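During the no-cost extension, the postdoctoral fellow (Dr. R.K.) reprocessed legacy sequence entries with the updated structure-token encoder. One reprocessed record is reproduced below for audit purposes.
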Amino acid sequence: MASSGSKAGFIVGRKCKLVWEICSGSFGDIYLAISIIKGEEVAVKLGSHNARHPQLLYKTRLYKILQGGVGIRHITVVWSGKRL
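Re-encoded structure tokens follow.
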């Protein structure tokens, strides 16, 4: 499903290397990535800093609140920030 504008190979937050785009939607793109530190496969969601209604910071806070809840998969927010 990788698009022609794929960011495969990019390093995100000095933590993960993007492998390929899993899917794309209104609020961002989700990539399969490899953790540089642990070598594990992870999912990375990238959103546009120009988004009219940015969602990623809100979702980051929500994931942290829900962490450990019944029926919630293990979610680790490795990095959240803006690329300058």
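The chain has a mean pLDDT of 80. The first helix runs from residue 56 to 66. The remaining legacy entries will be reprocessed before the final report is submitted.
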